[in-house]
Specification:
- The chain is an all-beta fold.
- The protein is 0% helix and 50% strand.
- The strands form two sheets. Strands 2, 4, 5, 6, 9, 10 and 11 form a seven-stranded mixed β-sheet that branches. The chain has a four-stranded antiparallel β-sheet with strand order 1-3-8-7, with no helix packed on it.
- 29% of the residues are buried.
Length: 119
Amino acid sequence: QVQLVESGGGLVQPGGSLRLSCAASGRTFSSYVIAWFRQAPGKEREFVSRINWRDTITYYADSVKGRFTISRGNAKNTVYLQMNSLKPEDTAVYYCAARPGMAGSYDYWGQGTQVTVSS
């Protein structure tokens, strides 16, 4: 059973930074894709970024490109989302998700972590 646990959310001022972590367990993730999504109040959940576990190729939504960086730990089954130059519109619950291949739906989700960008 795959488990994903997010951490690192909080309150930050505009222009600040946060690093989110997603700890994955329950499987060997070498063929998996790990992604971050977010959902703001009253809005639909949206894709933020993803990383292929095997070759670490990354993808970003246009809204975060150049500000956010996704990476994975070498020794741990952990994926990070470094968020810089945060804006109030980045405020949302951030979710980690996983799927077992390069295509298809994300079958596994974490519980989410709140990120609030406000002065």
